[in-house]
Design brief:
The complex is a heterodimer of chains A (about 260) and B (about 270). Chain A has about 260 residues and is of the alpha+beta class. Chain A is about 25% helix and about 30% strand. Chain A has one domain: Fumarylacetoacetase-like, C-terminal domain (Fumarylacetoacetate hydrolase, domain 2, Alpha-Beta Complex). Chain A contains 7 helices and 12 strands. In chain A, strands 1, 2, 3, 4, 5, 6, 9 and 10 form an 8-stranded mixed sheet that branches. A 4-stranded antiparallel sheet of chain A has the order 8-7-11-12, with no helix packed on it. In chain A, α1 crosses α3. The longest helix of chain B is centred in the first third of the chain and has 17 residues. The chains are: A alpha+beta (about 260), B alpha+beta (about 270).
């Protein structure tokens, strides 16, 4: 499928820079398939890297079966995290830096070893992991009102926009991440609860799926990079004055105030 | 304040008693009397409980219902409700449940609290409830409605024993020591497939605070929760449909799993 990938990439990057949402790509290219959408994603990420950003990790999206059904797709998706997206523990989210920010609680992996290949399983992911962290993922679709197809989101680098880790890292050995509980709060009110199994049955299985999917495209992860394993609950919209908190059993908590 | 007269409450309780016996659901009481509220529900519940006690049933604990904000909003209420749990409705881990016991069963994974001391209100704090707690158990609740098609309003479900059908408890009672029950994770599977996950905070923000709420709510009725009681603290996820032959498993961090199977017709 041939389409002007670099031009589309520029449009998406410009949308993020000017904080102005655009309409879905599939309005103009109704046949956009996931394979081509990942090529557009590559163009978006390459353009960002050429602009000075550095790739520091990756994240998964649509890791729950319910969400996949809702989006009419049959598999999760991934995108790349760059250093200009990171918020350090204790920092504040500046809402005006985003178009329509949403937050969701996740378990994040810091890799101690390279991880790539078509046969990677959850066990390999755990063996290659230095620490796991409680994390909040900040999404920001460049498409108005989060109205998009699965291919649109892939092209839009899976809505990657920001993330923050909690201040405590934990060795995942000896913990069953599948059962680890999470309570997600906004402004002191409980939004939802979940356990690690909400992402593809196990957060490490989710990361393993991503590594295998990347292998099909000749990609992989490096030691020192991070992986956000997928949302445990629905995302919530945030506005100035809001604070979101994700508390995890065994892993500690992470808080993100917004202004 | 109740709207139902004592005579009406008796009549409605008798209708529920008969619906339980015959497995033939009845129309909601709120169809005829739309203004019935929570006090009316409890007035009817009390008569129904008396019927069942007269039959030789015994109360071994309580269940809390409407412990999540979405459920409370759905029924237009800002507090949970409760009903007694009868000894004849308690199953153990691995049990097979007869389908002919229920009308329209649904399944929920919950944290059960086992009391090691008597507990009573009216000024019971979560700290006192924790002190009286012997431990937590992995639990499943089979909710059921004697009201046709679950077309319940608040008074209907309260009257109907808070829609309790049966419970299943693991035999492993784990003391609350060095962990936060609010963050206790649970994975709920149906026939091997993960259909929901949750954590303790889904039950009224804190399963232990839910027990204190119950002790305080029972106090004006002169009821003390005796040591050994089990308190089902509320669903950690949306209730799941049940069909004959289905296998349900709720696996908790720290508490382990509880598994039951619904028998097929005729088993």
């Amino acid at each position: 499928m041939s389409l002007p990938k670099d031009q589309i990439a520029r449009t998406l990057i410009e949308a993020a820079r000017t904080r102005t949402a655009v309409h879905p790509l599939t309005d103009d290219y109704p046949d956009l398939d996931p394979a081509t959408a990942y090529e557009v994603q590559d163009a978006v990420v390459n353009a960002r890297v050429e602009g000075g950003a550095r790739i520091i990790g990756a994240k998964l999206g649509l890791t729950s079966v319910a969400k996949q059904k809702q989006m009419n797709v049959s598999e999760p998706l991934y995108g790349w995290l760059t250093d200009d997206m990171q918020l350090d523990t204790g920092q504040t989210l500046v809402c005006s830096d985003y178009i329509q920010p949403r937050c969701e609680p996740e378990i994040a992996f810091l890799l101690g070893e390279d991880l790539a290949g078509p046969q990677v399983l959850a066990a390999h992911v755990l063996a290659a992991t230095e620490l796991v962290f409680p994390a909040i993922d900040v999404l920001d679709s460049r498409f108005a009102g989060y109205k998009f197809t699965g291919s649109d989101v892939i092209a839009d680098n899976s809505s990657c926009a920001g993330f923050v880790f909690g201040g405590q890292g934990t060795d995942p050995r000896g913990i069953d991440l599948r059962l680890v509980g999470c309570a997600f709060e906004k402004n002191g009110e409980l939004v939802a609860t979940a356990a690690g199994a909400a992402v593809l049955g196990h957060p490490a299985a989710s990361v393993a799926w991503m590594i295998r999917r990347m292998a099909e495209r000749g990609q992989g992860m490096k030691a020192g990079q991070i992986v956000m394993a997928g949302a445990l609950t629905e995302a919530v919209a945030v506005a100035p004055g809001d604070t979101v908190v994700a508390r995890f059993d065994r892993l500690g908590s992470v808080e993100l105030p917004c202004r | 304040m109740t709207i139902v007269t004592d005579e009406q409450a008796r009549e409605f309780a008798a209708a529920l008693y008969e619906a339980r016996r015959s497995r033939a659901p009845i129309a909601p009481f709120t169809d005829a009397l739309p203004d019935l509220g929570m006090p009316d529900g409890y007035a009817i519940q009390q008569h129904l409980v008396q019927h069942l006690l007269d039959d030789g049933e015994s109360i071994i604990g309580y269940k809390l219902g409407l412990t999540s904000t979405p459920m409370q909003r759905l029924l237009g209420v800002d507090s949970p409700d409760f009903g007694p749990v009868f000894a004849s409705t308690v199953y153990r881990d691995g049990a097979e449940l007869p389908v002919d016991r229920f009308i329209a069963p649904r399944m929920e994974g919950e944290i059960g609290v086992i009391l090691g001391k008597d507990l009573s209100g009216p000024d019971c704090t979560p700290a006192q409830a924790l002190d009286a707690t012997a431990g937590l158990v992995a639990a499943l609740e089979i909710v059921d409605s004697r009201i046709a098609d679950w077309r319940i309003k608040l008074a209907d479900t309260v009257a109907d024993l808070a829609s309790n059908g049966a419970i299943a408890l693991s035999s492993l009672v784990v003391p609350v020591d060095g962990f936060d029950p609010r963050l206790l994770g649970m994975v709920f599977t149906k026939n091997g497939e993960v259909v929901a996950t949750g954590a303790g905070a889904a039950a009224l923000g804190d399963p232990i605070a839910a027990v204190a709420w119950l002790a305080n709510t029972l106090a004006p009725m002169g009821v003390t929760l005796p040591a050994g009681s089990v308190i089902m603290t509320g669903a950690l996820h949306a209730m799941v449909p049940v069909a004959p032959g289905d296998v349900f498993r709720a696996e908790f961090d720290r508490l382990g799993p509880i598994t039951i199977r619904m028998a097929r017709e005729g088993e």
